[in-house]
Specification:
single chain, about 270 residues, mainly alpha
């Protein structure tokens, strides 16, 4: 069972202000590089490739100035998923058996595949977290809208989609914090979320759903009222206080990262 306190450790969706080069990059550059990294990680099939990808992400973390412990602390809520992925692949992949107990058989190929998938999940979570940790919600919205703008010719609502995705990312830590508050309130009234088997623990979480949904709808309504009070009417005719512009550093990072990630996907 994930402890209540770990809900606040989710890194995705949070933003940490800073003055690093990574913070100053154009949001479109960071979005494009993140998408390349996500796609590239699915093509890598060796520990050497994942090691080089981990080195690339580590360099990005060092440049951003974000404490590494903060990123790895964000892995705690999903550690069960990572371990389950490793275990299922280790025991369900056919190959050379190195240990067997009844119908369970641990194979050499399973350990190799399970380890690869576990490392892939860790790199995906840490890599995508860097985007939101170094990019403000406003800059992220502007970047997404700019990248989606060519789709307006075929009817894609670029501004609305960018706004929806940014609000969704922004509210991840907010909803998790609300979940933590509800759990603590129910525990103070005698609710037990940590005893019993896995099924009983899952059932004990069901009473959280109603107040959580009510809170989410209330926040959505308050956000809609606040946007209307500020005369928000969609993307048509809107001007921007800060215009996005590529700088030499953006071209260097985008070209260098693109070449490196494509090389990793095709060779490593």
């Amino acid at each position: 069972m994930v402890p209540v306190a770990t809900f606040r450790n989710i890194a995705i969706g949070q933003y940490i202000p800073g003055e690093s080069m990574l913070h100053r990059l154009d949001p479109r550059t960071k979005i494009a590089v993140t998408l390349l990294l996500v796609v590239g990680l699915f093509f890598i099939d060796s520990y050497l490739g994942y090691g080089l990808a981990a080195l690339y992400i580590a360099l990005a973390v060092l440049n951003s100035g974000i404490p590494a412990r903060f990123l790895f602390r964000g892995l705690k809520p999903v550690i069960i998923i990572i371990l389950l992925t490793f275990a299922l692949n280790s025991f369900l992949t056919e190959g050379e058996i190195i240990w067997q107990w009844g119908f369970l058989s641990l194979t050499k190929e399973g350990l190799y595949k399970g380890g690869l998938l576990a490392v892939r999940l860790i790199l995906l979570i840490v890599g995508t977290s860097i985007l939101t940790l170094t990019t403000s919600p406003l800059a992220l919205t502007d970047g997404l809208e700019s990248l989606l703008r060519p789709g307006r010719r075929v009817g894609i609502p670029a501004h609305e989609l960018a706004m929806m995705m940014t609000i969704a990312l922004r509210f991840i830590p907010t909803l998790l914090e609300e979940t933590e508050k509800i759990m603590k309130a129910q525990m103070a009234r005698g609710a037990d979320f940590e005893s019993g088997n896995l099924l009983q623990r899952a059932k004990s979480l069901l009473p959280l759903l109603v107040p959580l949904f009510v809170s989410a709808f209330r926040r959505a309504d308050e956000l809609a009222i606040a946007m209307e009070a500020r005369c928000y009417r969609g993307g048509e005719g809107r001007t921007k206080l800060k215009q996005l512009a590529f700088r030499p550093a953006d071209f260097f990072v985008l070209a260098g990262s693109g070449v490196f990630i494509v090389w990793l996907a095709l060779v490593a």
